[in-house]
Amino acid sequence: MMDSKSQLTVDIITKVAQGKITINNASKLLKRSRRTVERYLRKYHKQGITFVIHGNAGRQPVNKTSDTLKRNVQSLIKEKYYDVNLQHLAELLAKHEGIDIKRETLRAWAHEIHHVKRAKRRRSLARKKRERMAAPGLLLQMDGSTHRWFGDNKSCLIAIIDDATSELHAEFFNSETTLGCLKVIRSYIENNGLFKILYVDRAGIFGGPKRCHFSQVQRACEELGIEIIFANSPQGKGRIERAFDTLQDRELGEI
Questions:
Q1: Separation between Cα atoms, residue 35 and residue 201, nearest integer Å
Q2: With CB atoms counted within 10 Å of each terminal CB, which end of the chain scores lower, N or C?
Q3: What value does the mean pLDDT of the chain take?
Q4: What region does 166 belong to: left with phi over 0, alpha with psi -120 to 50, or beta?
Q5: Residue 77 near residue 115, CB atoms below 8 Å
Q6: SS (H, E, C) 50-82
Q7: In what order do the strands lie in the sheet with 197-200?
Q8: Which of 249, 169, 167, 239 minimizes the C-alpha distance to 200?
Q9: For 132-254, CATH number?
Q10: pTM for the full model?
Q11: What is the C-alpha separation between 110 and 104, in angstroms, rounded?
Q12: Which of 34-43, 163-172, 197-206 has the lowest mean pLDDT?
């Protein structure tokens, strides 16, 4: 599973391969040199979207300690050295067994057999957050959120958010429609000027697969020189998704 940064890299390199984004613009959006983008492009043509996966992914390190030694040490801990702490354990193994192991390796092996009380682990992040764009107007994320914003009746909040500043432009509509999306885009442009790229999901409104890669929103963006990039997962457009979560958690009077 790719994180949001890798997902954006794939989406932009795909657009470069299709001739919809120049290498120079891709270099600015990815904050990479032109040479790096060209290298990505060559690997994309050879490997497809897997080019973002590092060549060492899934490989075992060359300095990995053997499983036989690991089982031997764990057996010694259970049967012979079960009543000593880690510092003493390392000394005894080196002195009496001729086994010299790094402290952190020994700690991990001891934890596996519950020899040492585990420290409370902090919940790790499922995905690494992608760095923001360098300047406003380079990349905007757009989506609609259907929710019971006003009592029991559902309505749709269509919003557009600047990736660099998290500045949010939004408006309520009865549902997520082409007209609503165009209205929000127009409002943003009137207040801030044209932007470079619109990052959206694969809904038909934006010209996704359900609309055979064509829609009025897509046509309007093409006439304005705005590139549309489709995210392959909700995590790819995490900023707009988190903005909706925040707004839904607030009281109506705070929205």
A1: 29
A2: N
A3: 79
A4: left
A5: yes
A6: HHHCCCCCCCCCCCCCCHHHHHHHHHHHHHCCC
A7: 168-173, 153-162, 139-150, 197-200, 227-230
A8: 239
A9: 3.30.420.10
A10: 0.47
A11: 10
A12: 197-206
